[in-house]
Each structure stands twice: as C-alpha cells, then as structure tokens.
Amino acid sequence: MRKLLAIAMCLAVLVGCQNSKKSDKSTGAKKKSVSLTAAGATFPMPFYNMVFKQYTKETGLLLTYGGIGSGGGIRSLKDKVVDFGASDAFLSDEKAADLPAEIVHIPTCLGAVVIAYNLPGVDELKLSNDLLEKIFMGEITKWNDSRLKANNPGANLPDMAITFVHRSDGSGTTFIFSDYMSKISSKWETEVGRGKSLKWPVGMGAKGNPGVAGTIKQTAGAIGYIGSEYAFAQSIAVAKVQNAAGKYIEPSIASISAAAKGEIPADTRVMLTNSSDADAYPISGFTWIILYKEQAYDGRSKAQAEETLKFLDWLIAGEAQLVAEKVNYAPLPEKAVNQAKTILRSVTYNGSPVLK
Amino acid sequence: MKSDKVTKQILFAASLIILLTAAGMVFSLIMGAIPVFKEFGLGFVFSNEWDPTEGRENYGALPFIAGTLITSILAIVICLPMAFSTSLFIGEYFRKSAVASVISSMVDLLAGVPSIVYGLWGFYTLRPIIMELGLSPQGYGVFTSGIILAIMIIPYATSLSNEIISMVPNELKEAAYSLGATRMEVVFTVILPNARSGIVASYILAFGRALGETMAVTMLIGNSNVVPDSLFGTGNTMASVIANQFGEADGLKLSALIGIGLLLFIITALVNWIGKIIIKKFS
Q: CB–CB of A166/A204 below 8 Å?
C-alpha cells in the first residue's frame, strides 16, 4: 500500500514538474517558476479541483491535487513530496508529533453528513437524538414504532421494517457520523465508538456515497447517512436532526456553515459535530489543509513558500468560497475565515512571516 | 537434437515461472498475515468478532468464512439439478440437434457475461422479486447472492459435463439399447457410471469459482460483517470484504484482510484437493 502511494505521489510530482516546464515556455508574460502540488482527502476533491483550476486561470500558477485519501495526504506531507496535504480529520497532538516539524491546520470549507431515507408519502421526518440512537442501535426496527410516531405526529409512517444502510468501505463520512453519534449517545460511544469503519450493530453495507444513496433510493423503508455534497447534488429525502439547542434543523449550505459560528479554538482543530449554535446543522465538519509552519525546509525557495501562502490566503475567502457553494460545500463563516487568516500569517520563512 | 534441448529448456523455464509465482503468492500472503495470527492466534479463524474501531480492534474471519461457504454451497445446490439436466439435454437426449446447439451456445454465452453485469441484473431485477415475495424486507442477503452465484456457475458445470457425457462411447450405449434398455436406463446405468468422475470434476470447478466470486456478491449480499442469522439474512464473503475494505486499511486491519485472503486460498486449495481424491476414487 505504502509503495503504491509512493509511486502515485512520484507520478503526481513528475506531472507537476512537466506542467511547470511547459508553462514556462508558453506563458511568456505570466511566467511563473514554481508550481504547487497537494494531495489528500477525497471528500473536498470536487471543490479543490474547481478552485485549483480557477486559480491557475487567474494567475498562471500551476496546481496539482491528488485525491489519495486523508491518510495518504499526511504521509505525503511527512515525506515532503507535497507543498501541503489535505485531511478530513485534524491531527491529534500525538499524530502531529509524528511529523518532522511543526504544522498548522487551515480549514477550507465545511461539509456535513445527512440522514437520508426512503419512505413513500413521507415528506418530512424529524429525528431526535434519542430516536437516532434507538434506530441505529437496532432497538427501533419498524417505521410505525410508537416513539417515531410520537415525534412525527403529521407523518403517515408505514408498517415497514427499517433497513439501515451504512458504508461498507472505510470513509471520513463514517467518521463524522460516528463522532456525532458518540457525542449524543453514551451507549453508542461505549458499544460502537468512532472510526472510519465500525462494528455496526445493525444494517447492511454499500460501497461509497453513490452505493449508499442508490440502495436507499431502491429500497422502501431504508435509512442511511450520506455526505452532504453528494446528497445535495442528488434529490434525496433527508431527515431533520435535533441540534444541541434542541431545534430540528434541515441540512442546507447555510445551516452547515452555521456549525462553525460558535467558539472555535485558535488552531481550528475541532470536530464541529453537535455545534452549540442554535441554527447549526449538528452533523457538520471542517475539512483542512495542513502545511509546515516553517516553510524553509528541504531547500524550498522563498518564491515557492510565497506562492503557497498566497494561494491559501485566496482559497479561504471571497470568490473561492463562493465556488464552494456552487459544488455543494458550505463556505467558512466570517469568523473562521479571520482565524484561518491569522494562522496563515503565523507561517514563516526562515523565521520571518511570509504573508504580511 | 539441439532444438529438442531448447524446447525442453523453454518448457522447464515456463513451468518454473508458474511454480515460482504460486510460491511467491503464498509467501507474501503468509508474510502479510503473520501480524494478525500473532495477535489473535487461531482465534482469528474461529472468532466472529469483526471490530475495526481504533483502540479495541478485534478481528475474526468466521463471518466471512461462513458467508463464503453458505453462498457457495447454496449456489451449487441450486446449480446441480439445472446444470445436470441441461447437460443431459445437450449431450444425450438432443445430441447434435439444432435446439441443442442453440442452447449450448447460449450456455457458453452466459459464461462470458462479466460478473458486474450479473450484479446489476441481481440488483435491479432479482432483488425486487425477492422483496415482492416477502422473503426479505430489503432483498439483500445470502439467498439472493446464492441464486446469482448459481446462475453464474451453471455454464461452467454444464459445458464441461455435457462434453463428458457426449464422450461416452457410442458402442456402449448401443449395446445397452440392443439389450432393450430404455433411454432412462441407459442414462443411469451406462452414461453416468462412465462419466461420473468428469461430472464431479465439473461441479468442483464450478464450486471453486463460486468461492472466489467477488463483484456480483458484493452488490447483493448486504455487506454486514456478521455470521448470517438465516438464509435470508445479510452477511459478507471473504472476497467481498477484501474488495470493500482494503482501500483505507492499514496496520492490523490490513493484515487481517490479507489473512482472510490466505484462508480463502487454503479453502480453495482444499476443495481442489478433495475434488482430485473424488475423481481418483470414481474412475
């Protein structure tokens, strides 16, 4: 596995080099001597592909992104074969200590996990935290269960078995979902826990967001969790979930974005699930870009460091964040943008800040 | 003389490469599986716990061994009467007729259909039927996968056994007819005793294929990592869990998946070995 990744990275770097050579020849006026390479999470890949392309168009700087998974992105950063890595999960202090130098986390956008279901004739479904626990732990097995009915008085819930569909492959989506479940249910935390793949109490597995969404669409009585960026692009019925303030919230770009409005630690390393904001959709999370705090390593030129930081500064605000919305990710709220900007300005080259 | 020597060397090299490849595969499987066997010992084979959650990792292959064996046995049980009667139809009753040649080529065509196509058909056609019959609320499970596997292996069992049935010497059959035997009697007293080792071999080949089939099963078995609780319950097979989970796996989990690969290899080898013994005994 490691070897494969290394080969993939080498290829990515090679391609990057080639591109930069080509651009040297073709773009006379906007001549750039550097190009940036990044790799990591697959979840924000549609967003990154879009903004990377746009940035290249605007500035002539060439950027390459390899969607090799969060773990691969961090390994690549460790091996110093990329300018920055991307991850859906922040690095714990232990894992950060594994890297050769100090790193910083920059949030780039937000995503969420939605609870999708298939019940003919039921347009609105409210699920309290208690119901989520009971359904996903397998204690409620029928849609017309009295506890479900009590919470959804208007809905005509059928006498149908509940089929829980989860991911059969390891995924950051599963991690966010299980992190939320662990926060709202101590039973879930002790019996199932958090992780990219789990020991599921009930249900069946399908591969990837498309697999889960397809199975739900095809199966009356199914319920499952899907990445919001995929669910919004498809028209699939999603349940309203109760947030920490007790309100039932429908997942939307605005309500996901609101999850980051509350208190965020200065280094932005936080799971946003179960946010305290009253308008926030509770199963939301950041996705991060990770880079070294001191950019003068491995003989990197100052220009390389400057271009990296300039790009990231552009990525977290303004126009780039509007692009996020277009591809169904939630943009960073104002406060998070300011925090990210502060972090970016703490990045140095030979001890002096790169961005002013 | 010289060309003879060259040929001999080429043949020797070719077979050596095959031997080395097989040995290399077994070697790398064993090396990869060592950590998981060190951690859990033989319990890895017999435990039905599969918990990949960090901090309390626990891996047992029993759910997948059970899923693989149950779906494959189900498949061979469904396949047996169908394949046997089809091969008798083609190889004996309607031998060399136009109908037989059409059916025979249809069977060969089935063998050529990629497994993902069977999976799609199972997902969109067979699964709704299972749901309609009320056998299972969501249509996934061991039974659905067993049916798909049966359809996939019928061509293997059929085309080989019909070859063998049609190879039974005509003189023997004619002798039986001249003694006044009916067609049925000829089938059971002359054809079957003559062809049985070949027929058994064809079913073992088909069974071996069912054991390793991945794609179509993944789409239909429901991928829940537990020992199936009933014929219509969901489960998972060895090949399917490897295909699903190796992408994000590392450390002990990766070793557990390789361990499952090794077990699958051993089971397939065992089936072939038993098959060889049966063939020897019958012929």
A: yes
Is there a domain that residue A20 lies in?
A: no
ipTM score for this prediction: 0.81
Residue A159 has pLDDT above 50, yes or no: yes
Among the candidates A234, A257, A284, a domain finishes at: A284
> Among the three residues A284, A300, A316, which one is the final residue of a domain in this structure?
A284
One domain for residues A240 and A319: no
And the tokens for A244? 């920490």
The answer to whether the beta carbons of residues B142 and B240 sit under 8 Å apart is no
What are the E-state strand segments in A143-209?
Answer: 163-167, 204-206
Residues of B in contact with A203 (CB under 8 A): 224
A130 and A213, same domain (yes or no): yes
Residues of chain B contacting A207 with CB distance shorter than 8 Å: 218, 223, 244
CA gap A90, B100 in Å, rounded: 65
Nearest Cα residue in chain A from B131: A219
Asked, for residue A22, whether it belongs to a domain, the answer is no
Tell the residue number behind the tokens 């870009």, with chain if given.
A289
In a domain, A219, yes or no: yes
| Region of A315 on the Ramachandran plot (φ > 0 left; ψ -120 to 50 alpha; else beta) | alpha
Q: What residue type is assigned to position B207 of the chain?
A: F
Structure tokens at A178: 């299980």
Phi–psi pair at A210, nearest 5 degrees: -60, -40
CB B80 within 8 A of CB B149: no
- Co-location of A172 and A267 in the same domain: yes
Task: Note whether A69 and A208 are same-domain residues.
Answer: no
Per-residue DSSP letters for B148-198?
HHHHHHHHHHHHHHHHHHHTS-HHHHHHHHHTT--HHHHIIIIIHHHHHHH
Shortest distance between the Cα of B1 and any Cα of chain A, in A, equals 47
A352 strand-pairing partners? A349
Cα distance from N-terminal residue to C-terminal residue, chain A: 41
- Single pTM value for the model: 0.81
CB contact at 8 A, A224 and A164: yes
Start-to-end CA span in chain B (Å): 38
Whether residue A19 is contained in a domain is answered as no
- The domain of A318 spans 32-111+285-353
| pLDDT classification of A7: cutoffs 50, 70, 90 | low
> In sequence order, what E strands does chain B have?
50-51, 58-59
- Strands in A126-127's sheet, in edge-to-edge order, are A126-127, A240-242, A248-249
Give me the CATH number covering residue A121: 3.40.190.10
Query: In this structure, are A247 and A220 located in the same domain?
Result: yes
Distance, in Å, from the CA atom of A90 to the CA atom of A288, rounded to the nearest integer, reads 7
Contact B222 A196 (CB under 8 A): no
Longest dimension (CA), chain A: 71
Looking at the fold, whether A339 and A273 belong to one and the same domain comes out as no
Domain count, chain A: 2
> Cβ of A195 under 8 Å from any chain B Cβ?
yes
Extract the tokens encoding B138: 């969501």
Query: Which chain B residues touch A199 with a CB distance below 8 Å?
Result: 49-53, 225
Interchain contact, A71 vs B250, CB within 8 Å: yes
- Could you tell me if A215 and A307 lie in one domain? no
Give B-chain residues touching A169 at CB under 8 angstroms.
244-245, 247-248
A86 and A152 share one domain: no
Nearest to B248 among A69, A193, A198 (CB): A69
pLDDT for B75-118, tens place per residue?
A: 999 999 999 999 999 988 888 889 999 999 999 899 889 999 99
